[in-house]
């Protein structure tokens, strides 16, 4: 900002520029402008300091934020809250607590936001007992917990499955005249779903209506997902219909839960009907939507339902990608259906998709598990000839398969090749080698491998 006869920028001008730069995400430029401001002997005010500290803390640039704090005159509660939030979000809880103590020693009275910030971090890291101490400390200081305070601690208890503590806090909440909102009911529904308490899920949803609170789209989504997971498919479908009757639009998450559950409980026709219903409503689910359902079904061993869903994709104009094929191939391999898995590989290549290391590793692992090492090795060679480089996962699978089928010489050759290729070995690789060499009493090789690792 050259001196050209115009009025030099004042603190308000700098505050506006710095705030604008932070909003654009240009932290470095904003920080440089702050130092330019100091160089020009323009004194920052409380707005400047708080704006800079809040933005730097949000960006987790804590060294810079603390540098600014040290020169700030009379930091206030907002200042300390920003610093604490920055330390908490960057996983530095000890420093956050240190700032809390400094705040109190400096005579700055913490507010509800201060306590909520600390409690949120502690609960997200499973430290509900410590969070409860913060809660009790807050009450002793005469501060009244708000709905966010209660919700934070309730969610912490729910995540840990501490239902007794959750119920006690809920009772205290009601006793203190706090009204349960949509978020609190959502927490309760999730907690009971996690503990597989289906009757409580239904009861909580019913109580919500009894208290005059109309369930919103998030509540319906949560209860439908919970009922699907707990096998109450008819109740889930009933709530789905109610949701639509109330004028609420189900999102992709709701449809994913229902379609997955329908496939799981052998109601493929209804699942197919629901998919076409989605399309009729103008919702065009992408391949990620179907991949999510396929992945769940394959992991549950429901290969038939997975294949039906896969076959449907072509009829509705959704093109499978590499992840789709790899997911289904994994399902077939887990079920020991290697011929079907190889047909999928052939089909994948025929539509112009290139198998990656995950695809090949999945198939090779499938062959190794049923001791078809010749097929595994042939696929390994094909993988390399097609320009797909094996990673350490692939090598580990082959090594383990060779040792398990007592092909020790071939395993040693492969190990030498891995080390020569410069591939980064993992502890799991050494464990495979050491365990199998120990079984064959190859003490010198065992010791040599150990020395290589050390």
Compact summary:
Helices cover 74% and strands 0% of the residues.
Tell me about this structure:
It is a single chain. This protein is mainly α and 454 residues long. The protein has a domain of 108 residues: Alpha Horseshoe (Serine Threonine Protein Phosphatase 5, Tetratricopeptide repeat). The chain is built from 26 helices and no strands. Helix 7 packs antiparallel against helix 8. The longest helix has 14 residues. The protein is globular and about 75 Å long. The model has no long low-confidence stretch (mean pLDDT 88).
What is the tally of beta strands? 0
CATH class of the domain at 1-108: Mainly Alpha
Secondary-structure class: mainly alpha
What's the helix count?
Answer: 26
CATH topology of the domain at 1-108: Serine Threonine Protein Phosphatase 5, Tetratricopeptide repeat
- Helicity range: over 70%
How far apart the termini lie comes to 59 Å
- Poorly predicted regions: none
Instruction: Please tell me how large the radius of gyration is.
Output: 30 Å
The string of secondary-structure elements, in order, is HHHHHHHHHHHHHHHHHHHHHHHHHH
* Cα shape: globular
Largest sheet: none
Quaternary class: single chain
- What is the level-2 CATH architecture name of the domain at 1-108? Alpha Horseshoe
Summarize model confidence as the mean pLDDT: 88
- Annotated CATH homologous superfamily of the domain at 1-108: Tetratricopeptide repeat domain
| Strand content range | under 5%
Protein name: Pentacotripeptide-repeat region of PRORP domain-containing protein
Keywords: Repeat, Transit peptide
PPR repeats: 10-44, 76-110, 111-145, 146-180, 181-215, 216-250, 251-285, 286-320, 321-355, 356-390, 391-425
Organism: Oryza rufipogon
